[in-house]
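Running low. Got one?
___
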Amino acid sequence: MADDRDIAGDAAGKKHRALAAATLLALAGLLLAVSGLTLFASLVGLAVASPLFLLFSPVLVPAAMLAPLLAAGAAVSGSLALGALSLLSRLASAARKAAAASTRDYVEEGKRRVGEVAAAAVDKTPHAELAVVSKEGHSPTDHKIADNYEHYVAGRMVGSA
């Protein structure tokens, strides 16, 4: 009888081991399928995210932000250079016209304006007449000399003796 139990126990043990092996094999297959799906999902996610990582990388994003600023700077620089070139052209044209014109006219015009300013200053200050050097009828070295006047000497008002 003991042998019958061992044989029956041995057969039951084999069934139990076979059932456990089949269950573990199915579980292992299921886990392998899940890990395969996880790997596939990771690869798909990496394939989708890689271009995004390249586009939004720490180097490319600031470079993309800086590109319009560089373009605007180049445009402003070009327009300012064009404006400066235009001003220099007008300055050269005015210099050519000034060189062609008679300088004697400018000197006479300057003398006339200085005389007008001096005549206006005479009305405002009493001793300004002394500074008027060239009036009509006088040579450039003649001065109007008043009988009693005060003038500045070394920064101080001095009366005439």
Remarks:
- The first strand starts at residue 150 and ends at 153.
